[in-house]
Amino acid sequence: MNPSSILVEVEDLIVKYPVRGDRKKKYITPVDKVNLQIKKGEVLALVGESGSGKTTIGRALVRLLKPTEGNITVLGRKIHEIKGKELHEYRQVAQMIFQDPFGSLNPVKTTESHLKFPLKKHQGFKAKALDEKVSELLFQVGLTPVEEIRKKYPHELSGGQRQRLAIARALAVNPQFIVADEPTSMLDVSIRAGILQLMNDLKRDLGLSYLYITHDLASARYFGDRIMVLYGGKVMEIAESKELIKNPLNPYTRLLLAATPGSESQIDLTNMTNDPPDLSVGRKGCPFVHRCPLATEICKETMPDLVEGDHNHFVACHHLDKREQWN
To answer: What is 155-180 written as a DSSP string?
Structure first.
């Protein structure tokens, strides 16, 4: 990957959360030494089950939480330790679209109020120019008729309209990078495609980069340029979207594909355990070991390295030579 084209770079990211213990403080590690890169104008789709660490990574990238260890570099700037004025300035570079469009909006503020605040604070719009920019943003995200929509409150909008407003609010600061945290999962199936198409159009027209967080491999393939598969806070596989869907190498990726509606996979899911991975500090081995049909003793003791195969396809698995045994 050309270094000059890299917008976001994450190195050995670790995030720990305290949990209630009997006597001494205990921690879990939902994100454990994650490395990733996102190019300018690229969509990296982050895929995995609930609890895999996807949202935690997203929040760390927009500095809604401070990582325990590791480096996060955006546009050549170390952002994992910034605060105060520098953090305020970073909000103009990176924004986040949340999963719940109703919960992320202020119920007592009108549509136009949600947009006027960031436009005034971050871009200095005033008076007539401010009103014109609000109308422009609403039109850009498909919230029409503009003059009617701008006076409405969140509860007067549909779920799809609320998510479009959330996208418009993110665009109000003119960002270069957006973390989209399952932006369609709480919407009706009939309007999900419209939201993804809007985000795709914005990527093309504005040159935006995205970290697209989802549990849906179908939408990841549609919207993502590359897909990274995460489980138990560890990167299991990463490749270009078409390559990963066509040739999944990690047993966990194959399991995700088998569970996707319309999949032609012959893998029998009926006897698969749903037990969560071990997230404790100091854990050993591969986090998928308790569910993997190919697991051996080495899988219990050592986390496999993420190694590169053909077509810029990276995978972490001790038993790539045995994957065809799982049919």
So the answer is: GGS-HHHHHHHHHHHHHTT--SEEEE
